[in-house]
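As a warm-up, study this chain.
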Amino acid sequence: MFNGSRTYSPLPSSPSSSRASSSSSSSSSLPVAPRRSPRALRRHSSLLAQYSSLLESYTEGEIRQLIAALVERYSQAMNSGGHELPLFPRAGSRRKRARARHKPCALKELEVSVSELGLGYESDETVLFRYCSGTCEAAVRSYDLSLKSMRSRRRIKKEKVRARPCCRPLAYDDDVSFLDAYNRYYTVNELSAKECGCV
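Now compare it with the structure written out below.
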């Protein structure tokens, strides 16, 4: 009945099933079609084989460290109100990250000490540092598109050029004055942003 070139290996059977099949074959003259394992099961078994060989390459101490790290991440997720492992992010998390990357250019502020500004002054006085943050995707002009094309075609090679607008201060706040750790008086201009825009 089957005259193709494909061969099928018989499935292992128990003695009781072989007796049942022999008795049923005598009562029925229909041939039994060979059964094939589903592709999903084969894929699953190959993944299991890959993971088992991967785990065999680790030492017992490394496996314990891995399990401890997974348990710690799970407990942190449960304590923060999550109901699933952070190893498997929710479907919407990628969209949230994309939206976070494309926030429009805006003015933000941060209270910092003068020493943290990195200008070389030693002072514990705090100032309000305003800065510009965000993307400028909506402000892309023909210049930016053409410059990007010239860079991709390697017509512009050595010059350092930026092929998209950047969120930068358009105006600066008033000068900032302070006393350093040695009671010396300083004034710094153009320290904090007053207005931001895509330049």
